[in-house]
Amino acid sequence: MLLSANHLSKKFPTSNQQPFVAVQDVSFTVPTGRVVAFLGPNGAGKTTTIKMLLGLITPTHGTIQVLGHPVARTLGAVGAVLEGSRNIYWRLSPLENFEYWGGLRGIPRKIAQKRGMAYLTTFGLDAKADQPVRALSRGMQQIVAICCALIHQPQLLLLDEPTLGLDLTAAEQIQTIIRQLVADTHLGVLLTTHDMSVAQAIADDVLMIDQGTIVFRGETQSALRGFSSETYALSFAKPLMSPELTQLGRWGTMAPVSPTQVIITLADTHPLSELLEYLGHLPITAIEKQQVDLAALFKHVIRQHQKGATVHVDRREQ
Ligand SMILES: Nc1ncnc2c1ncn2[C@@H]1O[C@H](COP(=O)(O)OP(=O)(O)OP(=O)(O)O)[C@@H](O)[C@H]1O
């Protein structure tokens, strides 16, 4: 296994006696040649986990192994783009950045230049090799940041919000580049993003964290198929009253589409038969299975977790 995080916890001291538990008993793996999306609402514990993976902060409990070795000895196998394009020097050109970041990783100047230039050519940016990074577009800067993170040819790449602030075309280019890199080099990628469409487009596996604990893990496409089989569009002859809507919400996660239609994803504990029985009391005109996207799946998992409902965390066997 490329990366294996085992029972990671992180407690931060607070001004009162009780430490704050930012990450609790988090375990996951990133295999070679796969993109794993690490998703969670603000403050869920993603950055804290990634900082532990990079050895920037020490876990309170748990271990991290990269290629079977403790993480402190394996940072050479890891590349990271943590704060978007801000982790490259804007006054320097892409080539100068490659030399600088390569030098920090012990890569000779000429080799860093050659590798960096090859990446720029692959990604269509060779004409920009000598311009200051600040004169490039945000999308181009992001590509240069990814190239810098790859300059020592790591086996694992950690990408924090790689498409943040990019327009649709630039975001799609970054997605294509990530998939291309994985196909060409069998890199393993751990990616955080709040953009569910990006995660759905490029992640082989999804991992969701909420309030410091893992609340869902699964293979992206099979998880979406699984949830689609538990999600229904319900149409009614007349708009539902508020108590009826509240009652319906008890069966799972509900999203109104129009006054006479709602989408509902059943919670693990509520079988369809129970819902059908209740619907018999309402002016129902149609029940249709619904195709679910990752944004809906994410919302469902997080809402169920925050309601304290039982969530079936591991969806890998579906
Ligand atoms: N150094 C610290 N000291 C105390 N609390 C911290 C520290 N770093 C993070 N936290 C807390 O830990 C929790 C998790 O933060 P973290 O930055 O890991 O979340 P995140 O999932 O990356 O969120 P976002 O999506 O908003 O970036 C938050 O409540 C945060 O306030």
What is the overall number of helices?
10
CATH names the topology of the largest domain as: Rossmann fold
As an assembly, this protein is: single chain
**Could you state the CATH homologous superfamily of the largest domain?**
P-loop containing nucleotide triphosphate hydrolases
Total count of domains: 2
Largest sheet: 6 strands, mixed
Parts with pLDDT < 50 across at least 5 consecutive residues:
none
The helix content is: 25-40%
Biggest β-sheet: strands ordered side by side in the sheet: 6-7-8-3-9-10
Give a brief outline of the structure:
One of its GO terms (molecular function) is ATP binding. This protein is an alpha/beta fold. Helix content is 34%, strand content 27%.
Kindly describe this structure.
The chain has 318 residues and is of the alpha/beta class. It folds into two domains: 3-211, Rossmann fold (3-Layer(aba) Sandwich), CATH 3.40.50.300; 224-306, Alpha-Beta Plaits (2-Layer Sandwich), CATH 3.30.70. It contains ten helices and 14 strands. The strands form three sheets. Strands 6-7-8-3-9-10 form a six-stranded mixed sheet, sandwiched between helices. A four-stranded antiparallel sheet has the order 2-1-4-5, covered by helices on one side. A four-stranded antiparallel sheet has the order 12-13-11-14. The longest helix is centred in the middle third of the chain and has 18 residues, at 168-185. The structure holds adenosine-5'-triphosphate (ATP). Residues 12, 20, 22, 40, 42-48 line the site of adenosine-5'-triphosphate.
